[in-house]
Amino acid sequence: MAKLIIKGGTPLTGTVKVHGAKNAVLPIIAATILGQHGISVIHETPALDDVATIAAVLQSMGIRVNHQDERLTINATAVTSFEAPLELVNKMRASILVMGPLLARFGRARVGLPGGCAIGSRPIDQHLKGFEAMGAIIHFGEQYVEAVLPENQTRLRGTRLYLDVPSVGATENIMMAATLAEGTTVIENAAREPEIVDLSNLLNAMGAHVRGAGTDTIRIEGVRELQAVHHHVIPDRIEAGTFLIAAAITGGHIMVDGAISHHLTSLLAKLRETGVEITEHENAIEAKVVRPLRSVDIKTLPYPGFPTDLQAQMMALLTTVPGDSIITETIFENRFMHVAELQKFNGKMMVEGRQAIITGGQNLRPAQACATDLRAGAAVVLAALAANGESEISGLHHIDRGYVDLVGKLTRLGANIERDEMVKAVNVLSQSSESI
Ligand code: UD1
C-alpha cells in the first residue's frame, strides 16, 4: 500500500498557502447544473479526489467538465441523465448534492443509495423532507432514492421549512432546489457555515434571489432560470486549521497564507487558550509557540462553534499538552476512530460515549498507523510530525480526498516526509469506505 514515511520531531516553520475549500467547491460544482446557458468557470478549485468524484457525477449526466490548473469549466447546457450513479455516491456522500439542482431544473432526480435509505449513520431525511415540502414525491428503490414532481406540476413550490438539525448538506440542497421554485422558500434552523455563504454568492451571481445565508434563516425567492457563472472559491478553513495545529504540535511557527481568520474564530480562541501565539493578518493567520502549552476542553458544534472537521487534529495536539482535556463530539456519532490510531503513538485517552478524555503531556513515539478517514488521517500525520523517529502512515486515499499536495506543503515547512508510491495500484483497489 502507498505510505507516508515521516521522520518527526522537527518544529515546522515558514509560510504555507491554503487551497480553495473542498466543502465549498463540492456544492458549487453541483449548483452549476442549474445554469441553462453558457459555461461556468470555477476558480481556485482544488485538485482533490472528491472534486474528481463530483466532476465524474456531472460527466455521467452528459455535462462537460474540464479541470486544469485550479480552473474548472462546466458546460451544463445539455443534460442527458438525472441520476448520480451508486458507485460514485458510494465513493463520496456529497454526491447527494446534485439532487436539489436536478429536481429544480428538470423536475426529477435519482441518487444511488446502498440499502435505499441512508449512508452509514448519516441520514438524508432533512434533504428529502425539504424536497417533499416543495411538492416532490419521494420514492425509495432497491439501491436508490428518487424525487419527482407530480404530473400536473412543472416547478417545485416555495415553502416554509424548519430543519430538525442544522445540516450543512440539507441546507445547501434545499437552497439550490428553491432557486427555481415557484414562490418563496424560507429555511429555518439553517446551517450557517461559510461554505453556505459562498454557495449563496454563487447562486445570486447566477441570477438567484437568496438572502440570509450565514444566518439561521435563509429566504429564497424562486426565479425562472439561471445562467452559468464565474466564481472564486473561498479558502479551505479546515486545511488552514490543520496547518495552525501543525505549528502548535511541533512547537513551530507557521504563517497560513490566504486563510480568513473570522472563519476560524473558535479554533483561534482554543489555540490561544492553549497558549499558542496567534496573529491575525488581513489575508493570513500566524501561529507561533513561544511558551509551554496547556490543556483545553473542546466541544464540537455547528458553525460558528468548534468544527467537527478539526476535532481529530486537535486531539492529536492535546495528547502532547500537559494536563487533562475533554473532547465532546456533538455533530457525528462515532467520530473517534482516530483514538485507536493516536494510541499507537503513545497517546493516552479513553472514550466514553460522545466524550474522549485525554491524559495529555505524552511524548509521542513513532508508529505505523492508518488514516481511517479524512480528518483522522490529518490527525495521525500531525502525531507523526511530533513523534521523534520514523512513522509510517497508510490509508492515504482518505487524505487525498481533502488535502492538496500535503507532502509538498509540509516539506516546504521543514518536515521530513516522503510518499512511497510503489504500490499505488494496490491502494486504488483498496478504496472502499467513504468517510466524512
Ligand atoms: C458537511 C461537511 C463535513 C462536515 C459536516 C459537519 C461537506 C461536503 N461536508 O457534511 O465535512 O463534517 O458538514 O460540519 O460539506 N443529519 C441528519 N439528517 C440529514 C442530514 C444530516 O440527521 O438529513 C445529521 C448527520 O447525521 C450529522 C449532522 O446532521 O449528525 C450534521 O450533518 P451535515 O451537516 O448534514 O453534514 P454533511 O453536510 O454531510
Walk me through the structure.
The chain folds into two domains: 3-19 and 235-424, UDP-n-acetylglucosamine1-carboxyvinyl-transferase, Chain; 22-224, Alpha-beta prism (UDP-n-acetylglucosamine1-carboxyvinyl-transferase, Chain). It has a four-stranded mixed beta sheet. A four-stranded mixed beta sheet has the order 2-19-21-20. A four-stranded mixed beta sheet has the order 5-6-4-18, with helices on one face. It has 15 helices and 28 strands. The model is unreliable at 116-120 and 424-436 (pLDDT under 50). The longest helix is centred in the middle third of the chain and has 14 residues, at 237-250. The protein is α/β, with parallel strands linked by helices. Bound molecules: uridine-diphosphate-N-acetylglucosamine (UD1). The site of uridine-diphosphate-N-acetylglucosamine has 21 residues, from helix 1, strand 10, helix 5 and helix 6. Uridine-diphosphate-N-acetylglucosamine binds next to helix 1, strand 10, helix 5 and helix 6.
Mean pLDDT: 94
Kindly give the count of domains.
Answer: 2
Radius of gyration using CA atoms only: 22 Å
Distance between the termini: 22 Å
Summary, kept brief:
By secondary structure, the chain is of the alpha/beta class. 32% of the residues lie in helices and 26% in strands. It has 15 helices and 28 strands.
Features:
four-stranded mixed β-sheet, alpha/beta, UDP-n-acetylglucosamine1-carboxyvinyl-transferase, Chain, elongated, 32% helix, 2 domains, 436 residues, disordered C terminus, binds uridine-diphosphate-N-acetylglucosamine, 28 strands, single chain
